[in-house]
Amino acid sequence: MSAVVAGFDEVYGAEPAGVWAAPGRVNLIGEHTDISEGLVMPLALPHATLAAASPREDGVLRLHSADVPGGVVELRSDALAPESGAGWAAYPAGVLWAMREAGLAVGGAELHFTSTVPTGAGLSSSAALEVATASALNELYGLGLTTERIAQLAQRAENGFVGVPCGIMDQMASACCTAGHALYLDTRDLTHRHVPFDVAAQGLRLLVVDTRVKHELGDGAYANRRAACERGARALGVRALRDVPYALLNAALDKLADNPAVQRRVRHVVTENRRVEEVIALLDAGDTRAIGPVLTAGHVSLRDDYEVSCAELDLVVESANAAGALGARMTGGGFGGSAIVLVEEAAADPIATAINEAFAMAHARPPRIFPALPAAGSRRLLLR
Fold first, then answer.
1. Do 369 and 355 form a contact (C-beta atoms < 8 A)?
2. What is the pLDDT of residue 281?
3. What pLDDT is stored for residue 217 in this prediction?
4. Among 249, 276, 246, which Cα is nearest to 263's?
5. Considering 34, 170, 210, 305, which one is annotated as catalytic?
6. Half-sphere exposure of 104 (CA within 13 A, CB side)
7. pLDDT at 300
């Protein structure tokens, strides 16, 4: 924390009024279901974005990142416009815009950011940036927002200002997770509970494998899939695919036979919601090892039905499972980024070696592998 305080002082010539943190996340199960009001189960990572901040009375928003080349980005809070091409600064600027759009009494600010959340790794670095900003502005201006409302405003910033059609899972994970737990979240009404997920106590380890690749299909690919899910819901006469019962999936798919792409998207969402229910039942029963095959089944669905995997993510899953992993799947948006691998603790190093060897054989860039330790959500670290 001292580094972000010193960085703020260096940039703005004074100490900050406070420091806030918001973590990145991995998603255990429930991928690409939040856009259809479905079920998800993320957990926060120790990797976090720190925001040192102070209010300004003149309505000016000044933004600086220690991790992005360039100087201070200066904007007027009353002149913020969606999709204005502000680069990385659009994410925190969008939070202020969303708050003002919601009628909240928030003015200017100076913010300085540092982050340990890898960018482009599918670990929600953008949500961490948004939630850290929202948490800072919430306390600087005494808004009294709940963590759920902070998540909603952060999502509004990304949807309405940045122009990325994401669901709310990432922001809820960053804002609401607790240490040692996964977050079982119903994205329709934001009801949630914290599910103990202490894999170490059971002799297990959950590895994150950052492929360190990002295929540039962009947000247009996600928008296309969201549109397909919405078309499927309309064709089936439901508000969202969340409302298609798993028991009636085959009948629903028959109705979509004239559109195979929509059919595949619908099959993924409905079966993925079912997989979330399976995982929560297994965790509640204390049978964490048994979730492994469910994770792998989720990857197959993301690869074949939702079509958001890529060769590198498939290589992680295939090589990990061949080396004895309990299960593995891509996590996050896809087209690159990260996968998670559930392993026996004693097998963690051999399986990591097998993944590295598979990447070397494929002449791919070596992946970054580290354990996922369920961490706390957004929090204040300092307030003067």
1. yes
2. 97
3. 52
4. 249
5. 170
6. 24
7. 98
Q: What is the DSSP letter of 365?
A: P
142: left (phi over 0), alpha (psi -120 to 50) or beta: left
Do residues 130 and 172 lie in contact, with contact meaning Cβ atoms separated by under 8 Å? no
| First vs last C-alpha separation in the chain | 14
Q: State how far the Cα of 280 lies from the Cα of 290, in Å rounded to an integer.
A: 11
Select from 43, 31, 44 the least CA-distant residue to 274.
31
At 384 the pLDDT is 82
CA distance 133 to 53: 9
- The predicted pLDDT at position 119 comes to 84
Tokens standing for 259? Answer: 């559109």
pLDDT means over runs of 10, the chain (384 residues) = 94 97 97 96 97 97 95 94 86 97 96 93 91 98 97 96 91 97 97 95 97 73 92 98 98 97 98 98 96 98 97 98 98 93 98 98 96 96 88
Q: Which residue has the tokens 């002149």?
A: 79
d(CA 61, CA 136): 13
| One-letter amino acid for residue 17 of the chain | A
User: Nearest 5°: CA angle at 30, between 28 and 34?
Assistant: 130
pLDDT score, position 218? 52
User: Which pLDDT value is given to residue 259?
Assistant: 97
For residues 221 and 144, give the distance between their C-alpha atoms in angstroms, rounded to a whole number. Answer: 37
- At 350, list the tokens: 């051999």
CA distances (Å), origin 306, targets 31, 121, 167, 318, 332:
10, 19, 16, 18, 13
pLDDT at res. 114 = 97
Q: CB within 8 A of 349, min separation 6: which ones?
A: none
Burial of 239 (0-12, 13-18, 19+ CB in 10 A): exposed
189 is a catalytic site residue: no
Inter-CA distances, 253 with 241, 244, 269, Å: 12, 10, 12
- Cα separation, 261 vs 315, in Å, equals 24
Computed on alpha carbons and rounded to an integer, the radius of gyration of the chain in Å comes to 21
Which residues lie closer than 8 Å to 154 by C-beta, 6 or more apart?
A: 95, 98, 127, 130, 131, 133, 134, 171, 174, 175
Cα 312 to Cα 12: distance, rounded to the nearest angstrom: 42
